[in-house]
Design a protein that fits this description.
mainly alpha
Length: 149
């Protein structure tokens, strides 16, 4: 059974994984270098920033409470901070900068690795420890927090 099949469809992990799919789609669109790249990159930057803020507000605190060692949260937060720095560099560069493609490729790889890290290390903790009701409530908070950004 895949991770996505194992999660409750109305729960927090499903909400986060939906957001990950949207981010992956936007990453692919920017990498395709088509017309409208600037607009897609701007949407990606806004989406990633709102997503990470929502994770830091809703998801990671729940994982911290469940993970006695806090190792998982420390690792994903470190990855997020590095990603925020590179995203800032990309925004400053702009899509027409000759260095954009190489820097974006590194950013894309790091984001995909980060999402996989969360899905394989953090999400199972949440699935195992959150009650269905707590997970549903957290999913609502997570989705609302993403729209605020």
């Amino acid at each position: 059974m895949s991770t996505s099949e194992a999660v409750r469809s109305d729960g927090l992990v499903a909400a986060v994984q939906e957001a990950h799919q949207r981010i992956k789609s936007l990453l692919n669109e920017v990498a395709a270098d088509d017309d409208g790249r600037r607009e897609v990159f701007d949407e990606l930057a806004d989406t990633v920033a709102a997503h990470e803020a929502a994770e830091q507000q809703v998801v990671h605190p729940l994982t911290e409470r469940a993970d006695e060692k806090d190792d998982v949260v420390v690792a994903v937060v470190d990855e997020e901070q590095e990603g925020e720095q590179v995203l800032g560099q990309l925004k400053d560069m702009g899509v027409d900068d000759p260095r954009f493609d190489e820097t974006f490729a590194q950013f894309r790889e790091a984001v995909l690795k980060h999402a996989t890290h969360e899905e394989t290390n953090e999400h199972p903790i949440l699935e195992r420890t959150l009650s269905p009701e707590t997970s549903r409530q957290a999913a609502e908070k997570f989705r609302a927090a993403q729209t605020v950004g």
